[in-house]
Amino acid sequence: MRRTAIVILVAGAFGAAQAQLPDATSLYGIHWYGNPGDESLAVNPTDAEEMADGHPMWVMEITHVDEDDAPAWDQPWFFVNHAGRVTGNDKNHSLVFRIQPYWARNVPHPDDPYSLADFANDARAAADTLKDYVRFWQVGNEVNLTIENNRWGGSEYNVIWTPSPEQYAETYEAVRNAIHDITPNLAVPEQVVLMQPVGPGLDRGEPIRYMDGVEFLWRQIEGVSDPDLIDGFALHGYAQPGGTNFGADGYMKSIQEQLMVIDQLGLSDRPVLITEFNKHMPNSHEAQIGARFVQRAYQRMHEWNTSTGTVWPGQPNNNIVSAIWFVYPRGGWDDYSLLRWKEDIASTDPDVNPWYGFQAAAQQDYPAGSMTLGPVVDMGALWWEDDFSTLSTSSPPPAWTQNTIPNATVTPTDEGLQLRGTGGTGSATVYSEGLVYGNFRLEADFTFDDGRMVNTGVGESNFEIRFREGSNGYAVTFYPEQSGQHPGQVRLRRVNNWSESIDGLAENIGIADGDSFHVAVVATSDEIDIKVYKNGSATPAVDWTTTDGEQNVGWVRAGTYNMRGATLHRMAIGGPEWGGTLASVDNWMIH
Fold this sequence. Notes:
The chain is an alpha/beta fold and 591 residues long.
């Protein structure tokens, strides 16, 4: 009875005033506006508004809905008064609520006493409780991290488990449909339920991340029964430690890769909100980097929103509606807190103090990105090709990252990219960091110049084309006759599990110095077709089709391992329906 009375009282106080709340019009946002019990938040403007230069912001909050586990101050009813303070007094901030059963619980396990049906019912009640203030919801958080997933252990939720992307998709769909039963009393009376943000990055065998971020994102999207049920997406990204442009370049590559997954699956017309981005700032030195990162990051995101063709030729970039800094207030996350560094660094220089850095970014008046603007990816088009007369390293594609083990060189020439091993294991490669592809047609033309092993103690030399590469992926590997292992063979291997060929796909075709090859790979869902043509022949020396769903999306790469020399003449990638160049196979030969 007491709980119900509180909700009615506060809803009566704020409901009518909030009925026409618009969506925030700026790109700026903060995670946790402040303590929900702090009455000073009713004052306008507060410190947060001063930091945001008076712009309406996107404000992220978290609510938990399992009443048997979550304390009262985490439950939806407790946030009603807080929501009124955040959005009231003409502040016009937009609230985004992350909703889950409780901390480290996102996907109910089938054996949990708190079921998926319970979660959906409680999400519906939460949407009803907060309908005067909230229409944006994020279902769960970073499910590809083990630290985010506990199941029932018999007396409490203390057993780690690893939900699949498909299990998350089932959860999203049930919760999304339940929230849509409620109509918000807002200027735009439609619910927007965002798919959870993955923990970005690769699964490097650590106990925390059990699946690559982009791979989990791809599979959770495909796991939903009907793509029309996906309202939008939440993404996470972070400053690259030690990276260029104060970490902003690596941050944007991570965001770009996630957006490319959404684009390729045909959902670029759905709103995308970055509901967590930051720089780790444990000391004043790192805080100074963070002050510059926040400015560069907002600048880069605005440039992205207003640019065309960065990753898809002739197409607008998939817009970022908002970017929400984690976190604003002091508390349990002080190494990321803007308010902490305002108070702990005396300087008001925006290149020194992150709070003032955020303010300087807000003074640029970057608008919120479009809710619907994004590319239409043509699955029958050539997306890009490269003759390697120069080495492209920035947008638009191709944009390569060079990766060489010491004692190797990568040199662009008129004939193509020379890959030379000069010592050690002589590994010379280029790969498409920041550009990920799932369903595509890939072509590559290359010549073996000198197949000898650089280091005879290693036992092999090779040239390979990798695709869908992350912590997993596929490698079409060519071993020259001089290799100590598999001489003259082509093998299909799994990235980071090099010892065996996939489905036994290995064929001896003879590979001598001076031999040239054309490779065509078509990947669509779990079907992979590979053809290899040798020395201009119109008949493939290798013609493989395999079904393998271990990796759905990732980088492309070309390069040598422990080999003295090869030349990569051309690489091209397009949609899986692109016809390629095989119709004129005798024209592609460089030599």
